[in-house]
Design a protein that fits this description.
Layout (H helix, E strand, L loop, with lengths): L1 H15 L1 H34 L10 E2 L8 E2 L1 H33 L10 E3 L6 E3 L17
Antiparallel strand pairs: 1-2, 3-4
Helix pairs in contact: 2-3
């Protein structure tokens, strides 16, 4: 019995971890979002495309045979699925882009310039490390700046 209860406790820990819950919420929201985009395509965009000389893609099909039970290749549904995917991807891209812009504006802080790591040798004007006491190019002794 202790092995079962240990397994159940491990499973509870796994389920209650933050990333599993976040993923579950993401899947649920993604499913709802997909239905919204599918409705946008089928109920709004496809009829508009039909006005401009296009047609409703969902009715495009090829019957593979002449009998009543012949299989039907519904390639119009495939075209509709591709359009749904492209619209979904574009809307998600725009949402992420908008969130990133807002996040950048909110977290933008004054960026201080980085402290210099090099200096110029006063004798040969070569660039040398800031802590150098002798130039690696002309071998001149340098004054230590404090």
């Amino acid at each position: 019995m202790s092995k079962k209860s240990g397994l159940i406790e491990e499973f509870k820990k796994f389920i209650m971890r933050g990333n599993v819950m976040d993923m579950a919420v993401g899947v649920i929201v993604g499913g709802a979002f997909t239905s919204i985009v599918t409705s946008l395509n089928q109920d709004v965009l496809t009829p508009i495309l039909g006005i401009f000389g296009g047609m409703d893609f969902s009715h495009l099909k090829i019957t593979l045979g002449s009998s009543a039970e012949a299989p039907v290749l519904a390639y119009g549904n495939f075209i509709t699925a591709i359009i749904n995917f492209l619209i979904t991807a574009f809307v998600i891209f725009m949402l992420v882009k908008g969130i990133n812009v807002v996040n950048d504006r909110l977290t933008k802080k004054e960026e201080k310039p980085a402290a210099p790591t090099t200096k110029k040798c006063p004798y040969c004007v070569s660039e040398i490390p800031i802590a150098a006491t002798r130039c690696g190019h002309c071998t001149s002794m340098l004054e230590v700046e404090e």
